[in-house]
Amino acid sequence: MSSASTPLDAAPLNALVDVISSALKDIVTEYSKIGSTVPTLDETRLGPFDNTEQYNLRLNRAVQIVEGACAQLCATVARPSHYLTNKAYCFYECSCLEVAFSARISDILLDKPNGMHVSELSKASGVEVGKLGRVLRLLATQHCYREVEPDVFANNRLSMKLLSNDPIGNFIGHITDECMKGGSHLWTALSDPEWGTSYEVENTAFKKAMGLSIFNWYNEDPRGKSVHERFNQGMIGLGEFNGRGLLAKAYPWETLPEDTVLCDVGGGNGHASLIVLKSFPHVKAIIQDQEHVVSTGKALWSRECPGALEKDRVAFVPIDFFRDTPVRDCDIYYARHVLHDWPDAECVKILANIRKAMKPSSRVLIHEYIYQNVSPTRTQAYTLDKAPEPLLPNFGAGRFKVYTQDINMMALMNAKERSPEMFIELGEQVGLKFVKFHNSGETGLVEFALA
Ligand SMILES: C[S@@+](CC[C@H](N)C(=O)[O-])C[C@H]1O[C@@H](n2cnc3c(N)ncnc32)[C@H](O)[C@@H]1O
């Protein structure tokens, strides 16, 4: 059929298909540049780009376009009742992921390429055979695990991420346990006459669900250390899934002078700085976080970047960023996924303390998810990466994580994700001047200097 005779109402659908096929070409090109093909789902080995350090911004963008356009296409062609009911039911997928991770199904299936019968899996995991089979079938229907023969399940490229020692598995454990419990009480909190308008961590959906604020819950949950450990591992997973490796590519580190000092404020064990130091030996890092958190850093660095420890290129200095000033006169003050934990008033305290430590040439880099309106955004002092039309300009489902993470912050801590304008406004409140915005997939770096 010639394009002239294409019915008018098919045009937007065809445009979405065109966007998908063009992005797919880009994906295939990225793989072919390294002499590879796109790995199948059936693989159990990591694909060449599955590890964040190999990932790049072009591939990331193309994948998000495919995700966004496929979802937009499905939302358009499906009956609304069908589409929305599927969406409403998807929390059961989370429940099944929690079962699979907690029962260590992927660990049990490790090195069993032909899979295991569900009765064997049941014996090894302790989950009742009939129920376990149904859980795994739901997941296999969503491409996580394969049902290789009736009732015989095997790992695949997705289920390998649910291994108990994988940071992504731990992040999924965290999301499908405490986050899902909080999320299930969002309306209860929002419709509460007092809590609905509050931005206090004591008035959250999570507390409605669990009777404790998230911080107290971590201290009082009877599983104790294992929940803490899962959270800490999960934070590494958070970095992994939002492309921690892109940090080395999103900022011009190579242009900075020898012995540039990067202060990673609220840096956890320093796993984000580690990516920078691995690629740029002229950069040094000071990791600052609460004492019990930074104290875990040495173990990670001696495993992943021992040279930096040996050459004193990394130091760990405890801080309470609400009370203390970070180490003074550093060249870069970097804070990743720190401000999103806090309401504006607390963010201003953290930024004001950073500002006190700065010398005239210091820069601040706030690294966070970048919240965008769904309607086309107005002209700004920076350029946000927009998806090709007719995709939603914020990439729709391709960057859905930004919006789920925003609601997660609301449900757990009454905190939020922010747009670049919101960060710029916070900076201005403490005398920081916006310099530049650096796109990094669904995250971005907002750069400030002293005003
Ligand atoms: C969401 S995590 C982000 C960690 C790290 N920047 C990353 O990207 O993985 C927030 C960090 O803030 C730290 N934090 C919370 N309150 C703090 C405080 N009062 N002083 C210093 N660090 C704090 C936590 O320990 C945690 O490591």
From TrEMBL:
GO-annotated molecular function: O-methyltransferase activity
Any one of the GO BP annotations: methylation
Name of the protein described by the UniProt record: S-adenosyl-L-methionine-dependent methyltransferase
Species: Gloeophyllum trabeum (strain ATCC 11539 / FP-39264 / Madison 617) (Brown rot fungus)
InterPro entries: COMT-like, COMT_C, COMT_dimerisation, SAM-dependent_MTases_sf, WH-like_DNA-bd_sf, WH_DNA-bd_sf
O-methyltransferase dimerisation domain span: 89-164
Residues annotated as domain O-methyltransferase C-terminal: 203-431
Alphabetized UniProt keyword annotations: Methyltransferase, S-adenosyl-L-methionine, Transferase
PANTHER family: O-METHYLTRANSFERASE CICE, PUTATIVE (AFU_ORTHOLOGUE AFUA_4G14580)-RELATED
Pfam families on file: Dimerisation, Methyltransf_2
Presence of the UniProt keyword Chaperone in the record: no
Gene3D superfamilies: Vaccinia Virus protein VP39 (3.40.50.150), Winged helix-like DNA-binding domain superfamily/Winged helix DNA-binding domain (1.10.10.10)
Claim: Methyltransferase is one of the keywords in the record: yes
